[in-house]
Amino acid sequence: MKIKKIENNKKQYLSLLLLADEQEDMIDRYLDRGWMYVLDDDGIKCECVVTDEGKGVLEIKNIATMQAYQRKGYASALIDFIADKYKGKYSILQVGTGDTPLTISFYEKTGFVRTHRIKNFFTDNYNHPIYECGIQLVDMIYLQRKL
Question: Has residue 90 got a pLDDT over 90?
Fold first, then answer.
């Protein structure tokens, strides 16, 4: 298993990026300013984009694992890699996500705790309703992990 930084042509991974953020113009808001990493284990299995949000905060803007390889530890491994790589450079790793039990529990298992919510984020910023696990996403839930 190798993790590599993608410097150019990040959109070659668009199909994977769209698994985590299904509206391309929303991805365009952070992709160029973010650092992108892919996890390769006999082929690309997972990707992550992180951005500097200032004041010591590094934010996971997008993390996705190919559907056939979900629940095999790839996303957790990528998060641990990011946390180790940026420890000492940032004090907080944060992520914003939809309010669904499966997603929230994943982040809590990887050391994140809930910090705040942005009301109506998904309904205000996406041109169509977003559903995850049969639940319509409305508010953005933020979680943080100390680095």
Answer: yes
For 2-146, CATH gives 3.40.630.30
**What is the distance between the alpha carbons of residues 137 and 139, in angstroms, rounded to a whole number?**
6
Check if the beta carbon of residue 90 is closer than 8 Å to that of residue 59: no
Domain ranges across the chain = 2-146
Total H helices, total E strands in the chain: 5, 9
For 49-74, the pLDDT digits (tens) are 999 999 999 999 999 999 999 999 99
What whole-number percentage of the chain has pLDDT above 90? 99
The alpha carbons of the chain give a radius of gyration, in whole angstroms, of 14
Which residue type does 69 have? Y
